[in-house]
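Batch job 17 of 40 flagged for manual review because the log was empty.
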Amino acid sequence: MGIMDQLRRLLSKAKEEAGEVAAVARIKLDVRTLEAKRDHLLREIGRQALALHREGRGVREFDTACADVQKVEAEIRDREEELRRVRVRPDGADAAGTTA
């Protein structure tokens, strides 16, 4: 077997493996895209469930989870208010020393 035959066989094998790698990468990307879509849909379900809970039309089984979300939202508001207080000094300047 000549060197050219060996080279052709190696190139053919490399091409085949590159095709497999590309196929695997494509499939992995598809899976990640679908997982992101699923996560978005689940977040939307959660938003809708919370909205129904706030309207008093929620599903009883979600009451605890919705109450937990509302507690976290209250904590977020508290921390944001604390951040505003820290940023604005009594002299009207923010933490960087500039005035509004």
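Reviewer: the log was empty due to a logging misconfiguration, but the result itself is present. The CA atoms of residues 50 and 66 lie 6 Å apart. Unflagging and moving on to job 18.
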